[in-house]
Amino acid sequence: QVQLVESGGGLVQAGGSLRLSCAASGRYDIGWFRQAPGKEREFVAAITSSGGSTFYASPVKGRFTISRDNAKNTVYLQLNNLKVEDTAVYFCAADPEGTYTNDYAWSFWGQGAQVTVSS
Fold first, then answer.
1. Residue 97 to residues 15, 17, 30, 80, 88: CA-CA distances in angstroms?
2. What share of the chain is helix, strand, coil (3-state, %, to 5)?
3. CA 80/CA 30 separation, integer angstroms
4. Are the CB atoms for 18 and 113 separated by under 8 Å?
5. Which DSSP category does 61 fall into?
6. Contact 25, 33 (CB under 8 A)
7. What are the CA-CA distances from residue 50 to residues 10, 45, 69 (Å)?
């Protein structure tokens, strides 16, 4: 059974930074999604199990960076230059079958980490 545990959320002012972590029970392709109040869950970023390829959604490209430490089975999402519209619960997901940007392609999900950006 794949287990995922997110950490690192919090409250930050606009323009600030946070780093989210996703500790996994093994080595998998990992994706990050977010869900803001009243909105559907949306793709943020993904990284292959080797770390050789990364993918980003347009709204976060250039501001967020996904990386991994395979010795720790942990994937990180560095969030820089945060905007109020980045406020959401951020989820990591593992073991996709299909297109990374589709949330239904991912089989396993963490519990989520709240990121709140104030103006």
1. 35, 31, 12, 29, 25
2. 5, 50, 45
3. 20
4. no
5. B
6. no
7. 29, 15, 10
Amino acid letter for position 101: T
Cα distance between residue 100 and residue 13, in whole Å:
30
Per-residue pLDDT of the chain (119 residues; tens, 9 = 90+): 899 999 999 999 999 999 999 999 999 999 999 999 999 999 999 999 999 999 999 999 999 999 999 999 999 999 999 999 999 999 999 989 989 999 999 999 999 999 999 99
CB atoms within 10 A of CB 54: 13
Cα dihedral 32/106/111/46 (nearest 10)? -10
